[in-house]
Amino acid sequence: MSAIDQVIQSQDRILQKLALCEKTIGELYERYGNCHPDMADFWRNLATEEQTHGDLLEQVRADLKEGELMRGLGHFKEQTIQDRIRFVREKITEAQQEPPSKEQAVAIALSIESSIIDSRFFEFAKSNGSEFQKAAHQLIHDTREHVKLVQEAKLALGQSPD
To answer: Which CATH class is domain 3-156?
Structure first.
């Protein structure tokens, strides 16, 4: 296997994990909507957007298949993304076993969304591929909006927005 093929495979695995991470976050938010019917619309809207983010990242993989490499992925390790997926799955399991309070669910969501912003993945990673650039722009914008929405929900529950 050539060096370029190895790079493409590595980048594809990272994109796959990022897509899975977004979709798993969507599953968690859907679960929170089931736990708190009075906040169901809030959680389902976030869940839908997370699923859309996962779909966008799946589309970006097409750029790789056309030979469009990304730059800046060296800042990120597959294990880091896998750890985030594992954390979210643990929260899903916990919510199934004992639903969190509204305040706990909102705090967890804020932690997840903030960690995505803090990782700055979509600012570091670059590509000449149009799909990735469009997806990165939308993901940055949407995640910042998610932080604001979750902070507003936290305020509505009488907590400090942090």
So the answer is: mainly alpha
